[in-house]
Amino acid sequence: MSDSQETPHGPNSTSHVLADATNASTSSGNNEPADTNGTSSKSSTPKSKSGWDGKLRVGKQATLANPEALEDSDYSDDDAPPVDQIDADEDLLAGESPDVEEIELLHSRITSMAALHLERFQRLKRLCLRQNQIQKIELPDTCKELEELELYDNLIKHIDGLEEYTALTSLDLSYNKLKHIKRVSTLTNLDHLYFVQNRISKIEGLETLTKLTYLELGANRIKEIEGLETLTNLTSLWLGQNRITELKGLSTLTNLRSLSIQANRLTSLNGIETIPQITELYVSDNKIESLEPVRACTKLEILDFQTNPITSLKGIEDLKDLENVWASNCQIESFQEVERVLKDKEKLEEVYLEGNPLQRANPVLYRNKVRLALPQISKIDASYVKAT
């Protein structure tokens, strides 16, 4: 479950929160102030409408400086901090009411789910065990009504033991050591599914999860978009930081609204025309040279193509609903083209153009030129130019 989501609680619901974030030996040591999205307040990275930072996930940053440095035989880091562990028989939930519906144990050095004796909590709806050292998923039979399970930032290598937990609507296994997506086919009520920062090389095993609306597979080793054909209810798909070379396998996703495929190996946007209904497209940090295929996506509101060898805005002339255009660090030279293509976009609020030749050629006058060319905007490169 994303931090930006809210967990509904009725007037009679009971929740338990126990968080131990005081373990200095595993802190990241970052003393910069953080904004509400979990990112540094100094950052000028554009945010999506949901607050997402366009890279991985809002508010899901691990406390560990490097989560792969823990007990990984394939990883070597002489500077990795020592890790304390709780005893396997230590019961962190001793004395808690059996009627609790929500349990959070964050950064508590847990190595075993069995040690928590969760069988006592038969009304449990949400279980969050983020930032621990759990290697195996172990849930008791008494927790079959569990709806949300978050095991973000642990040491899990295999998806086991979830087949009968069919009430789950949200499952987060991000920042683990998974190589394959297996044994989730029975979880047909899943609505949100997160596998960020694992070692997954193939999208598979999701065919039966037709209720999914939100799928995150960022920061893996995926080379091809496949296995999504039946997920026709998907509205958001995040595939950033993989090894994808082309846009395909998307044509059946008729409800898709947000697509992120940043930091991959795309050289072309061919294929984007198969999902003309999307409203948010994030394709920064690729090798894309032309925006021409985007012409078909007439409902786009947010377009992020930063850090690509794009020289022209040709292809977005008719995208009248554009609100945000993020074009930093491209090869755009002409203020005249910026004005010609974007001045008639009445909904346009925010542009990022820094790092282009048109900015580097005259950085002193750059912002004034953008303001003159696009008088309707309120924000240039993360700085407000007029009250909103």
TrEMBL record:
Places the protein is found: Nucleus
Q: What is its main location?
A: nucleus
Could you tell me what this protein is called? Protein phosphatase 1 regulatory subunit 7
Q: Show the ranges annotated as biased composition (Low complexity).
A: 39-49
Write out the GO cellular component annotations.
nucleus
The alphabetical list of record keywords is:
Leucine-rich repeat, Nucleus, Repeat
| Location of the region described as Disordered in the Swiss-Prot/TrEMBL record | 1-85
Q: Enumerate the SMART domains for this protein.
A: LRR_SD22 (SM00365), LRR_TYP (SM00369)
Q: Does the keyword Repeat apply?
A: yes
The protein's matches in Pfam families, at most eight in alphabetical order, are given as:
LRR_4 (PF12799), LRR_9 (PF14580)
What PROSITE patterns does its record include? LRR
Residue ranges under compositional bias (Acidic residues)?
Answer: 69-85
**Highest taxon in the source lineage:** Eukaryota
Q: Which InterPro entries does the UniProt record give?
A: Cilia_flagella_integrity, Leu-rich_rpt, Leu-rich_rpt_4, Leu-rich_rpt_typical-subtyp, LRR_dom_sf
